[in-house]
Amino acid sequence: MWSNATQWPEGRLPIAGENVTIKGPWTVILDMTPADINFLTIDGTLTVPNTLASGHSITANNIWVRAGVFQIGTS
User: Fold this and answer.
1) Band of pLDDT at residue 9, cut at 50, 70 and 90
2) How far is CA 61 from CA 31, 32, 69, in A?
């Protein structure tokens, strides 16, 4: 879960303006609206569940799916 601070480097959630990397072995579920970030690199998996309708969103200046998966909802 994105909201689980213990999974992130430095034991805290990413803060506004940071560059964020979802590392290769990670699967992160967006369960909150994080602070606006600068650059999001996805090497693992970022999943935005169907509950996006509840208002969660992610804002970044750039999103790069380098070696991972950015999954939004289900078919």
Assistant:
1) confident
2) 20, 18, 18
